[in-house]
Prior knowledge:
This protein is of the alpha+beta class. The chain has a single domain (2-128), classed as minor pseudopilin epsh fold (3-Layer(bab) Sandwich). It is built from one helix and eight strands. The protein has one helix at 2-45, and strands at 49-54, 57-62, 68-73, 78-80, 86-89, 100-105, 110-116, 123-128. Strand 7 (110-116) and strand 8 (123-128) form a beta hairpin. The radius of gyration is 18 Å and the shape is elongated.
Amino acid sequence: MLIISLVSLISIKNYQVIQRTLVETLFVQQVESKIKATQRLAIAYEQDYFFGFESNYFYVRSARTNQNEWQVMMPAHIKISREDFVIKYLANGNLSKIEKFDLILETKLEKVSYQFLLGSGQYKKTISNP
């Protein structure tokens, strides 16, 4: 009976690790998708747009309305290196200043860094150990 219980606990733990790893992977993909979408929105609507992290949420916000057009709660096991991080895409799709932030993925034991390039609105992504 003890062996069955132990195997069950290991299976549950493995499932939780797989689930958290999948959540981390999907969240990173979602962040990258929203970064690119924010730049496209700024160009298409010819207005400034922001994306950022605030109070455990990741959001995209219009400068004109100052309301979130999209937001999602960050998973508890993903941390950001800078609280209340905000980056501004200008109406032409360029960035207003050089910025950097890191996502710390606790389950995958990775740090995903995003270094934004001035002018182009693009970013350089690197993955390392935290």
